[in-house]
Amino acid sequence: MPNAFAHIELTTNDLPAAKKFYKSVFAWKLSDVKSPAPYTMIDVGTGVGGGMQAPPMPGAPTGWMPYVEVDDVKKTVAKAAKAGAKIMLDYHSIGDMGAIGVFTDPTGCIIGVWEAPKKAPAKKAGAKKAGAKKAGAKKAGAKKAGAKKAAAKPAKKAGAKKGR
Fold first, then answer.
1. What is the DSSP string of 24-39?
2. What is the pLDDT of residue 158?
3. DSSP code of residue 63
4. CB 82 within 8 A of CB 74
5. Which CATH number fits domain 9-115: 3.40.50.720, 3.10.180.10, 3.40.50.1820, 3.40.50.620?
6. What is the CB neighbour count within 10 angstroms for residue 63?
7. Is 61 left (phi over 0), alpha (psi -120 to 50) or beta?
């Protein structure tokens, strides 16, 4: 998984440290672009990427708060901790919406990770359909059996009671 997110910029006081950290945690391709101020593009492979920059003006706040999509929140948070992150929220289930984790990178910026909810196994859905087919087959069998019973009874002769 390329760990995609919507375009968002990280503004940090230590761009080289931020680049080193994020490259070690996520499968991102980082590339510096020519601009008046240092700017690094984040290519996530598929989906929309983002960018990293030093504060664009004196007093500009640093930070960001996107949620990066990951396969496994627990594994990613552990990877981030190993790379120097301070874990703020290790793993938090959000019910049928998946799970999240939040950490601060070594430059002091906060980022969240999001894991999509696991899909229900297809086996369960197939079992319900098979059960429905069996029930339908039983009903059809009952109708056929009723028809056979009716056919087995001899037909009443018209006027059979007349001669009494």
1. HHS--EEEEE-SSS-E
2. 47
3. B
4. no
5. 3.10.180.10
6. 14
7. beta
pLDDT tier at 19 (50, 70, 90 boundaries)? very high
- The token duo for 55 is 């504060």
Buried (b) or exposed (e) across 80-96, using 16+ Cβ within 10 A? beebbbeeeeebeeeee
Structure tokens given for 140: 């059809």
d(CA 43, CA 39): 13
Q: What tokens appear for 63 in the block?
A: 């930070």
Question: CA-to-CA distance for 76 and 82, rounded, in angstroms?
Answer: 10
| DSSP category for residue 157 | P
CB hemisphere CA count around 38 (13 angstroms): 14
SS3 132: helix
